[in-house]
Specification:
Length: 244
């Protein structure tokens, strides 16, 4: 159930203590894919995973509005990219989660669509779980799936998902050159150290991996696989013994 579409009595009547919070980013995804790619993918996976859980258990679970801006300064060279500092992000996301816990939703699952948010989400989920009454974990959709479609950035995996969920947002006339000028790896690595802080240092158009290699059909399979993983995680989080 989308929390923002529900009334407060509808939220009161829910019989679960689970809640899902999609977390995105607004950042360049190459010349062919929308700035909102990570938020759109996180929302789609959250919705499909919660639907699977509801079908299995009969329990409706509230899905919070997506957090649209994340930790994305690494993409600052590309127009339209938005970011907040890790401190601001951790505080904002944690307080949003704790307001759900206040209403009795004290089993929280973040559904994340952006690599730059991973470390902060793990940290703040640990803080919530250790120092409040709630228990929280962070799920990142593209890390949850075992797929031969490469990840990259604005690459095959993300482009496939957007081709499936919002095909009108992919500029297909740019996809070919996006692939031709893409970098084939993330970062500039020496002795296990990434020397680059900004994506512009290793990708002239912001893309890593060839977006032509991910079809709408691949995207459908990726969302379904991520939704299965999320459904399994929701069951585990609901059943887990937890004491702060
Ligand atoms: Zn992305």
């Amino acid at each position: 159930m989308q929390l923002s579409d529900a009334t407060w009595p509808q939220i009161s009547a829910l019989e679960t203590n689970l809640a899902v919070i999609p977390v995105g980013s607004t950042e360049q995804h190459g010349p062919h894919a929308p700035l909102g790619t990570d938020a759109l993918a996180a929302e789609a996976v959250a919705k499909a995973g919660v639907e699977a859980y509801t079908n299995q258990t009969g329990l409706e679970v509230p899905i919070a509005p997506v957090i649209p801006v994340g930790i994305a300064e690494e993409h600052r060279a590309f127009d339209g990219t938005l970011w907040v500092s890790p401190d601001t992000f951790r505080a904002y996301v944690r307080e949003t989660a704790e307001s759900l816990a206040h209403h009795g939703f004290d089993r929280l699952v973040f559904v994340n669509g952006h690599g730059g948010n991973v470390t902060a989400l793990r940290e703040l989920s640990g803080e919530i779980s250790r120092h409040s009454e709630a228990y929280a974990v962070a799920f990142t959709w593209f890390d949850s799936v075992d797929s031969e479609i490469p990840m990259g950035h604005g690459g095959p995996r993300e482009t496939a998902v957007i081709r499936h969920i919002r095909p009108e947002l992919i500029d297909e006339s740019e996809a070919e050159t996006a692939g031709q000028h893409a970098s084939d790896h993330w970062g500039e690595w020496v002795a296990g150290v990434n020397l680059a802080y900004d994506s512009a240092a290793f990708s002239q158009n912001g893309v890593v991996g060839d977006p032509r290699e991910g079809s709408a059909k691949d995207g459908e399979q990726l969302v379904a696989a991520a939704a299965d993983g999320l459904c399994m995680l929701l069951e585990a989080v609901a059943e887990r013994d937890h004491e702060a």
